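Exercise 7. Given the encoded structure of a 315-residue chain, write a plausible sequence.
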């Protein structure tokens, strides 16, 4: 295979690495997990959809990030309807950001309210006790993650409002800022869905949280193309300026990962690869992704190869 044809991501041979059959209690599907590395072990905060169709989050831990998962025996983080009615139809798609200055993990997740998805925030130190900070974006808004550092004293978050989106107006990725994690504003478009025949024509949204590299903030995003046969969810890559994350320095024209294997093409929602988490070990990225909204799979890439690829992409 020539270098031009080499894929940036390599699927793990044990894929899918987690399925609902591994779960200690009855559920429908497990997918779209947040991911962190803690003391050399991998922790996934997994979206589990129960057999009503409502999602909660559960923790799975593994020494090697691939096998022998220890899964919490009961739901770890479930909708709290007494205090958070906006979680009526469940909690979904967590993105975890470790904040080195405080030692806390900030989790941006989707609260599925009766008027649509909203962005909500929680924090934890140990993935056992969680403090909810409540909703931070009105519906419809999702696909959010925070940066681990502040910019000029303000937190930054990428998210995807859907308010104006329609068949004619695509859904873009936005960025907002906050002095206190609670009040968000200075909201602006970060990256646009490309319309027309593009693979990321109709909707785009952040995938895992931004990863800091010497070349800038590395991001993956999902792009949705509507077709006569349904939506296709693929992943693209971009680089944001390290000091000013509102500036997109590079963006891949082609997707970097797409549904190919049967477990990605067939499931509750076929033709979907959807990632909420990755971990970095030296130069290797382990990308955890939901496959067809049914199972969790993993693919690896080299950070330096991804950056080399992106630096050669258009600015
Ligand atoms: C998106 C989100 C994801 C899901 C994807 C494909 O809008 O709701 O949770 O994986 O659709 O169904």
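Solution.
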């Amino acid at each position: 295979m020539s270098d031009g044809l080499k894929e940036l991501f390599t699927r793990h041979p044990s894929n899918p690495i987690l399925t609902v059959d591994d779960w200690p209690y009855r559920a429908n599907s497990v997918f779209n997990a947040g991911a962190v590395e803690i003391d050399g072990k991998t922790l996934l905060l997994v979206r589990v959809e129960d057999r009503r169709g409502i999602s909660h989050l559960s923790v799975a831990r593994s020494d090697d990030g691939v096998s022998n998962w220890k899964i919490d025996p009961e739901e770890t983080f479930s909708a709290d309807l007494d205090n958070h009615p906006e979680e009526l139809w469940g909690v979904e798609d967590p993105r975890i950001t470790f904040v080195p200055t405080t030692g806390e993990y900030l989790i941006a997740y989707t609260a599925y309210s009766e008027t649509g998805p909203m962005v909500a925030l929680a924090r934890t130190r140990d993935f056992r006790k969680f403090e909810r900070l409540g909703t931070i974006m009105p519906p419809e808004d999702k696909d959010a993650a925070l940066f681990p550092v502040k910019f000029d004293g303000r937190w930054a978050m990428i998210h995807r409002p859907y308010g104006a989106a329609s068949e004619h107006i695509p859904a873009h990725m936005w960025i907002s800022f906050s002095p206190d994690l609670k009040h968000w504003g200075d909201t602006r478009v970060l990256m646009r869905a490309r319309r027309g025949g593009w693979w990321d024509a109709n909707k785009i949204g952040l995938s895992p949280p931004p990863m800091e590299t010497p070349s800038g903030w590395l991001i993956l995003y999902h792009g949705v193309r509507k077709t006569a046969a349904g939506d296709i969810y693929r992943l693209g890559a971009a680089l944001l300026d390290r000091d000013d994350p509102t500036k997109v320095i590079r963006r891949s024209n082609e997707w970097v990962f797409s549904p190919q294997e049967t477990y990605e093409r067939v499931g509750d929602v076929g033709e979907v690869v959807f990632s909420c988490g990755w971990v970095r070990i030296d130069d290797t990225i382990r990308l955890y992704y939901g496959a067809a909204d049914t199972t969790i799979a993993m693919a690896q890439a080299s950070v330096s190869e991804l950056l080399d690829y992106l630096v050669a992409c258009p600015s």
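Remark. The longest helix spans residues 303-311. Students should compare their own answers with the one above.
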